[in-house]
Automatic annotation (TrEMBL):
<keyword id="KW-0028">Amino-acid biosynthesis</keyword>
<feature type="compositionally biased region" description="Low complexity">
    <location>
        <begin position="27"/>
        <end position="39"/>
    </location>
</feature>
<keyword id="KW-0150">Chloroplast</keyword>
<comment type="subunit">
    <text>Homodimer.</text>
</comment>
<feature type="region of interest" description="Disordered">
    <location>
        <begin position="1"/>
        <end position="53"/>
    </location>
</feature>
<keyword id="KW-0949">S-adenosyl-L-methionine</keyword>
<dbReference type="InterPro" id="IPR004450">
    <property type="entry name" value="Thr_synthase-like"/>
</dbReference>
<keyword id="KW-0021">Allosteric enzyme</keyword>
<keyword id="KW-0934">Plastid</keyword>
<dbReference type="InterPro" id="IPR000634">
    <property type="entry name" value="Ser/Thr_deHydtase_PyrdxlP-BS"/>
</dbReference>
<dbReference type="GO" id="GO:0004795">
    <property type="term" value="F:threonine synthase activity"/>
</dbReference>
<comment type="similarity">
    <text>Belongs to the threonine synthase family.</text>
</comment>
<keyword id="KW-0809">Transit peptide</keyword>
<dbReference type="InterPro" id="IPR036052">
    <property type="entry name" value="TrpB-like_PALP_sf"/>
</dbReference>
<feature type="compositionally biased region" description="Low complexity">
    <location>
        <begin position="1"/>
        <end position="19"/>
    </location>
</feature>
<dbReference type="Pfam" id="PF00291">
    <property type="entry name" value="PALP"/>
</dbReference>
<keyword id="KW-0791">Threonine biosynthesis</keyword>
Amino acid sequence: MASSPLPHSSLSSPLPKFKPSQHRTLKTTLTSTIKCTSTNHSPTTTPPAPAPQRRAVEDNIRDEARRRIPAAENFSSRYVPFVADPGKTPPSDESYSLDEIVYRSRAGGLLDVQHDMEALRRFDGEYWRSLFDSRVGKTTWPYGSGVWSKKEWVLPEIDDDDIVSAFEGNSNLFWAERFGKHLVGMNDLWVKHCGISHTGSFKDLGMTVLVSQVNRLRKMNRPVVGVGCASTGDTSAALSAYCAAAGIPSIVFLPANRISIAQLVQPIANGAFVLSIDTDFDGCMKLIREVTSELPIYLANSLNSLRIEGQKTAAIEILQQFDWQVPDWVIVPGGNLGNIYAFYKGFKMCEELGLVDRIPRLVCAQAANANPLYLYYKSGYSDFKPVKASDTFASAIQIGDPVSIDRAVYALKNSNGIVEEASEEELMDAMAMADSTGMFICPHTGVALSALMKLRNGGVIGPTDRTVVVSTAHGLKFTQAKIDYHSKGIGDMACRFANPPVQVRADFGAIMDVLRNYLDKGAKV
Ligand SMILES: Cc1ncc(COP(=O)(O)O)c(C=O)c1O
Ligand SMILES: N[C@@H](CCOP(=O)(O)O)C(=O)O
């Protein structure tokens, strides 16, 4: 007999209450071997009850988490105004609980999620490294997620039961052996495949956090009837999937005819209310900001600093995957510019909490057709002007007025960072070259790889520098761009690495002729 879907309200059944004396530490199995730096803090060692091999039919991993005795640590976080220039800006006492619905400071600036670093510092770097390492590759709710395995640094106060997760994160850090060796003369080049994920982009990392918090707010009867975003495709895909998983309405504003078919179909399939609007992304962004200030629709773009908290875990994951060794360079394609700051924040927290002793240099890579940050960088950060972004094959970063410009500049200045740009031909050639070495990347990753090639050619990045290129979306979302390239169907582009299929008659002789010709040209057998 088919069972009826779980109504959303059934998720809000009250949690068992525990007396303070029953509280245990974060990861009881670990604490006996890990040093705690506080003298007045004494982690206990009671191991959790082993999970049964077969669950009763009415039991599941969420129930298991409900039975787990919660941690006693008082980790907390709150919104504070984002301070772009600590030297010039006087400290403010403005702050907000994460349970408030607020996206901007009183002065109209960006917000940042600030963690109680003193509380986190009560544990040393070795403690955090071991805790995070112990959670990788498990199915324990919610730590099976690469984001929630760092829960204490993300949203420490959310109840496990409110979390909406697809066990995102833990993405592959791919050793780009052939691309590195043959195309840029490097032996230590890596691609962090954030796009090989639940909805095919890094947006899942931020969206699990934002939608979980919305889930919590709705259980608290806060006025949130739905969640909305403007999108060039990936944000809307992630928002609609996580909202659908939680039974929360989602509303997405898309620039008409400017996103790929694969991206358009994602929110449609996940049941979002999809508005296709006759403007570009910047126009959609302006409209969603106006709408969310009028209606009880929660804003899900990265202007909302909750998103950054999830996205920063990709940086922590990179360090973890290198066994807590710090790479020299990390190259991130940039559009609305939340992600470059997220990477900075993840690396910086690891440094501040003693997991590593330095942070990598960051590179933000933009499409030349949508390059406001690049132009600002080239002006010595003296004169920021939004641009009218032109069409680009890297359509998800066709953004001329990025909301996180201040965050990006902060990240770059504090990591001795660089901004590079790539023309349409450069980014498409880079994508084709990467694909020919066994990857299947998106055009935005092509932008990042072209930046790498330029910085290698200019001698800025050395042959032995350990370098990570962040791949932001799955290549399968951008098949039309690849088809156009490989069929040499792009005006003014040589498409030097095109590999069009050969049309041949169904005839043995004809096929042998074609194959001999191919082998004579030097195909390796
Ligand atoms: C595939 C892809 N790459 C890169 C970016 C740029 O990220 P950000 O807007 O955080 O700079 C986006 C979205 O903007 C994206 O969808
Ligand atoms: N590429 C993004 C653009 C919006 O970025 P966000 O991080 O501010 O949501 C998208 O996929 O929509």
